[in-house]
Putative limbic system-associated membrane protein
Amino acid sequence: MRMWAGSRAVRSSLLMLLLTAANVGAPPPALSEDDLGGSGRGGRHKRRAFPGPHFHPTSPTNVTAQMSAHAYLPCRIKNLGNKSVSWIRNRDSHILTVDRYTFISDERFAAWHQAATQTWTLQIKFVQERDAGSYECQVSTEPKMSHFVQLDVITPQVTIAGEADIYVNSGSTVTIKCVITQALEEPNYIFWYHDDRRVVSAGSGRVLTVDRHPPDTSVGSLTIPSPSLSDSGNYTCAPASLSQASVMLHVLSGEHPAAMQRGTTSTTDTSGGPELRLHQSVLMAALISLLLCVCSPSFT
């Protein structure tokens, strides 16, 4: 009796395995008109067709980046499924990336995927002016789907406020200002150089500051509270990853700073001294006497 019960348990187990295998290999049941979203009766819960990949309307079409900064070109794709995403540079049709793989030797280019937002982002490090142009985000559907992003690169302008030469009396205070315009980002640092030596504030009494003036201007200031003749020379403003600007500082002691600050120079006496002026006076008197003689009636 126990053997029969054991045999029956084994047969039941085998039967369940066979049924499971049959269900796995069996084709799915045919879908009714209601399941397909037809207009028959009882269609309260109708199956809808699964939408294919499509670009999200929030994907930008224009991106602006600052020279030498990093640029990020996002491409948001809904319902991507098992399709691939490629980034292509349009000016030379160069395939930059496919999914997470990079196909260009320029290591500044890379792509990554953010699953939470279904976004494929192309990163370009240390952007150069030549990187400006159109980039294509392409999905491997048939036919291909494309979303285009225009990258604009702006170059900040670096200047020293005022004239190319600054004149100041020794012992007074002078401030040199480095103005950076068209800058989307504030520079990480602004170094100052006096001739070939970097200017530091610690222990020198000099004051270095950086102020941000929205939307796109930064001002770096170098203040010398009591300059001496040794402070004269070339001063260079060197912002991080940007061009440089220079100015000449002239520290005066007893000269004519008011005239020099207006951009004029003092004139030098080129008359040759008192002796030369005496000869000029004698010559002028002789010419006048000759003219009087010529014009008088007795001369004719």
